[in-house]
């Protein structure tokens, strides 16, 4: 890195005292190649070594406490190089036995009658502290926070500390933020902040430094998003769509129901995009069953009406088939609907591709089979990606690039929490359907322990007797040695015994697609009453007559997945039920079960899911385009993220960002753009 950067030096890692070939190798493995990398290699946490009152500690805590030694230490040796030092101390009025393993030399520092500070693990019941170290005497305050870095075997915290200390003296740090922003938000200068993050003196100071660093990171990230969206807007100029609005209205009139207000609003937003001379890039999110498919169908109709083709990509074959069928029904033969999955092969496939290329197909529905190279359109104007988070960035991109002027509509039933949508998607336009079609009854969800399964199965039976159908969901297909999960096959067999073999079907991911289709068909035709399945039914499957669902080991799933699964029932005017069967071992498992029984609002559930799982796990970081921040946390620092977004927008939109004084910052942003893939 050269002087054009905001953090720069002419020196190298090799120049540091103590860095030899071996430690250099280890540093490289931690992705530290330069001194600049090293100073930005921040601690993952800090251990608080400030002295506390022992009476305030709880059992199992690692504590730092001060007291008087009242028995001379004794050392017992056993085995080779093994020893145990024992002494007694009076700490905050508590008589405590203090032991140190394999540190016999500490005897010198634990002198009877003297006051010393020790750090160790407090075992309240036994009144024992298993010591880790005897603390050096501190004169007034001093460092009580010890930084802890993520390390490699062979590299010690102390060593890294020393390297960083030297590096900080050799590296120049320029500000990323203007003085105006620093003053406006009462931040520190980056030059002060970085050394503090490595060696904070006290907690308040660390908090302040972290706040400043987070702001820097979030601002940089938002600058990138704003810049990208500016570039995109400039390159995305296309001709606005030319459809006949009356034809579209007539089509809407032929639908078997009236659109909900939320659907009407979504249609309006999408049509505004389609008319504008810029490519649509919109996310349509709404709970399972909120009627996204119909909204998509109206957009497809408008495309057809302007002489353009559409493609709808979905994650599973079952779903592709269902979508193709329901679209065909909605269009009543006006549009030519085709289906392309990996099961479509040979002559049939060849013919289909020819028709597509000739423009004879108006809407093609399919799985990732759609992105194969030989799938060519005549004139594609709209790409719709359902359950968009199921596809990788590159898959989505490939489909989009099937045409030069493609508008893109993403759909998801896993609502993206607001927090993530402004950070991960930046400027992607978002439309939310927060309303269900009239007449839907809320699914009644309950939670049962494994030993209550008989009652649950009796409830299931009473639904079946009424002519309704049921799903029974199990987490894994094969018994795993690590996980004590119910085996889908075992449950299938058990239910066959209870309800009769012919009434129960089995569906799992390892079956061939023909087998799966066959079972799904029989279930849709009500030839099977109970479908035992793994999570393959998670997305989109529509069998309105199914009104009962059992989810085994429900605590193994996240809230969003449970909500998706539950959405397979509650698809008609009949009352539906979902029973979670779980005996959670963790508090969060119990909490999730409670949350699920209390809410059917997918937007609320996704916020809670994010809160409980954190942004990294929510959906793959890589897929979401979410950066790995060093300090910032988009959930906790959400308010700051919004502020950073507004400031970044101001800087980019005013054009100030492109003035020479921002040359270095632009370069930094540019580099971070290259590291990432965006939609
Ligand atoms: P999503 O894709 O959002 O899960 P769908 O589009 O599959 O939901 O719609 C679920 C069901 O509701 C379908 O059977 C659909 O025909 C029906 N539906 C959609 N919109 C309405 C509406 N406005 N009124 C009544 N039923 C509707
Ligand atoms: Mg759907």
UniProtKB/TrEMBL annotation:
Keywords: ATP-binding, DNA damage, DNA recombination, DNA repair, DNA-binding, Helicase, Hydrolase, Isomerase, Nucleotide-binding. It comes from the Bacteria. InterPro entries: ATP-dep_DNA_helicase_RecG, DEAD/DEAH_box_helicase_dom, Helicase_ATP-bd, Helicase_C-like, NA-bd_OB-fold, P-loop_NTPase, RecG/Mfd, RecG_dom3_C. Residues 452-611 form the Helicase C-terminal domain. GO terms for biological process: DNA recombination; DNA repair. It holds the Pfam family RecG_wedge. It catalyses: Couples ATP hydrolysis with the unwinding of duplex DNA by translocating in the 3'-5' direction; ATP + H2O = ADP + phosphate + H(+). The keyword ATP-binding applies. Belongs to the helicase family. RecG subfamily. Monomer. NCBIfam families: PRK10917.1-3, PRK10917.2-2, recG. Plays a critical role in recombination and DNA repair. Helps process Holliday junction intermediates to mature products by catalyzing branch migration. Has replication fork regression activity, unwinds stalled or blocked replication forks to make a HJ that can be resolved. Has a DNA unwinding activity characteristic of a DNA helicase with 3'-5' polarity. This is ATP-dependent DNA helicase RecG.
């Amino acid at each position: 890195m050269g002087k054009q950067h905001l953090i720069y030096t002419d020196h190298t890692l090799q120049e540091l005292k103590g860095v030899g070939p071996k430690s250099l190798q280890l540093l490289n493995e931690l992705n530290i190649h330069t001194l600049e990398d090293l100073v930005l290699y921040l601690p993952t946490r800090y251990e608080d070594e400030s002295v506390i009152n022992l009476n305030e500690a709880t059992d199992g805590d690692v504590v730092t406490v001060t007291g008087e030694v009242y028995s001379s230490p004794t050392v017992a040796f056993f085995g080779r190089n093994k020893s145990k030092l024992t002494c007694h101390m009076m700490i905050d009025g508590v008589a405590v036995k203090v032991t140190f393993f394999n540190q016999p030399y500490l005897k010198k520092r634990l002198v009877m009658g003297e006051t010393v500070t020790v750090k160790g693990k407090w075992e309240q019941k036994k009144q024992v502290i298993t010591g880790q170290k005897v603390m050096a005497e501190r004169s007034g305050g001093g460092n009580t926070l010890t930084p802890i870095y993520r390390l490699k075997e062979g590299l010690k915290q102390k060593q890294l500390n020393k390297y960083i200390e030297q590096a900080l003296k050799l590296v120049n740090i320029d500000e990323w933020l203007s003085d105006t922003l620093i003053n406006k938000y009462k931040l520190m200068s980056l030059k002060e902040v970085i050394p503090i993050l490595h060696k904070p003196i006290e907690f308040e100071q660390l908090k302040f430094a972290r706040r400043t660093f987070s702001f820097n990171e979030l601002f940089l990230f938002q600058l990138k998003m704003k810049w990208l969206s500016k570039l995109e807007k400039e390159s995305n100029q296309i001709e606005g769509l030319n459809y006949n609005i009356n034809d579209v209205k007539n089509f809407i009139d032929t639908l078997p129901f009236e659109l909900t207000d939320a659907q009407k609003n979504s249609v309006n937003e999408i049509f505004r995009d389609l008319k504008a001379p810029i490519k649509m890039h919109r996310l349509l999110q709404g709970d399972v069953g909120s009627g996204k498919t119909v909204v998509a169908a109206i957009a497809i109709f408008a495309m057809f009406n302007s002489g353009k083709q559409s493609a709808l990509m979905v994650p599973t074959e079952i779903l592709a088939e269902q979508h193709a069928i329901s679209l065909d029904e909605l269009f009543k033969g006006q549009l030519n609907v085709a289906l392309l999955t990996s099961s479509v092969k040979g002559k049939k496939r060849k013919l289909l591709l020819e028709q597509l290329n000739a423009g004879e197909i108006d809407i093609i529905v399919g799985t990732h089979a759609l992105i194969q190279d030989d799938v060519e359109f005549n004139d594609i104007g709209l790409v719709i990606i359902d359950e968009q988070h199921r596809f990788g960035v590159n898959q989505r991109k490939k489909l989009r690039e099937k045409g030069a002027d493609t508008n893109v509509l993403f759909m998801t039933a896993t609502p993206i929490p607001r927090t993530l949508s402004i950070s991960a998607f930046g400027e992607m336009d978002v439309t939310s359907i927060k309303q269900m079609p009239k007449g839907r009854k809320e699914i009644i969800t309950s939670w049962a322990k494994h030993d209550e399964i008989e009652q649950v199965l009796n409830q299931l039976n009473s639904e079946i007797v009424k002519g309704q159908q049921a799903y029974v969901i199990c987490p894994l297909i094969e018994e795993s040695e690590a996980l004590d999960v119910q085996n889908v096959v075992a449950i299938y067999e058990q239910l066959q015994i209870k309800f009769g073999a012919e009434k129960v079907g089995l569906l799992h991911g390892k079956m061939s697609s023909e087998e799966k289709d066959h079972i799904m068909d029989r279930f849709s035709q009500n030839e099977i009453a109970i479908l035992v399945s793994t999570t393959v039914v998670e997305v989109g499957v529509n069998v309105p007559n199914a009104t009962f669902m059992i989810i085994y080991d429900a605590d193994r799933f996240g809230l969003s997945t449970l909500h998706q699964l539950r959405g397979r029932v509650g698809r008609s005017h009949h009352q539906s039920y979902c029973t979670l069967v779980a005996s959670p071992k963790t508090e969060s498992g119990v909490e999730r079960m409670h949350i699920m029984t209390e809410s059917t609002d997918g937007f609320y559930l996704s916020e809670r899911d994010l809160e409980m799982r954190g942004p990294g796990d929510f959906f793959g970081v890589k897929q979401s385009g979410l950066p790995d921040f060093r300090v910032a946390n988009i959930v906790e620092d959400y308010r700051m993220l919004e502020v950073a977004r507004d400031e970044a927008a101001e800087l980019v939109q005013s054009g100030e960002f492109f003035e020479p004084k921002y040359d270095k910052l632009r370069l930094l942003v540019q580099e971070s753009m290259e590291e990432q893939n965006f939609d």
